[in-house]
Design goal:
This protein has 178 residues and is mainly alpha-helical. 77% of the residues lie in helices and 0% in strands. It has one domain: Tetracycline Repressor, domain 2. This is TetR/AcrR family transcriptional repressor of nem operon. Pfam families: TetR_N.
Length: 178
């Protein structure tokens, strides 16, 4: 799954090949099919694990008695670290770009990733704006999630992590993110 994740983060879901994956990890393609009968099964398992791992980390951040700015610093660093790792993308972000080509089971898991991130961001925003309405927090959280994924995508396309850094600083300077 690690090799499949790296392939998707670097080249997208459509670039994932059972044959190439098997060759990379030194097993037969049939062995991959044994564990994941279809590419959709593998893609869904990857997105599910990615979401679960992300949720675990983000829950730990919320458990810390820190402010919204501290939480957002750690959150934006997650996306930056993917770029710093061979100019890779957020797994579910890159799969979202190929949404029309994804099997239903993969789309479902990608949607769960987005919902998990937006829910977490809304909780962080409530630390900065405790009296804000839930709907306003949810909409602001979605805007932040989309903006950070977009900043990562543009930086990746330009092969310049500095674009990501400058964009995040601009978001913070304008008050868009705490």
């Amino acid at each position: 799954m690690t090799a499949a994740k790296a392939t998707i983060q670097a080249r997208g879901y459509n670039a994932l090949s059972f044959r190439e994956l098997a060759k990379e990890v030194g097993i037969k393609s049939a062995s991959v099919h044994y564990h994941f009968p279809t590419k959709g099964d593998l893609g869904a398992a990857l997105a599910r694990r990615y979401t679960e791992d992300g949720a675990t980390y983000l829950t730990e951040l919320l458990a810390a008695p820190e402010d919204a700015t501290w939480c957002m610093d750690r959150y934006t660093e997650i996306f930056r670290s993917a770029l710093a790792n061979d100019n890779r993308m957020c797994l579910c972000g890159i799969m979202s770009a190929e949404l029309d080509d994804l099997p239903t089971e993969v789309r479902t898991e990608v949607d769960k990733f987005a919902a998990m991130n937006v829910g977490w961001l809304a909780k962080v925003l409530s630390r900065a704006r405790p009296s804000a309405r839930d709907q306003d927090l949810q909409e602001h959280a979605m805007a932040i999630f989309a903006a950070i994924e977009g900043a990562q995508l543009i930086a990746r396309g330009c092969r310049d992590i500095g674009i990501y850094d400058r964009t995040i600083r601009a978001y913070r300077a304008t008050g868009f993110i705490p």
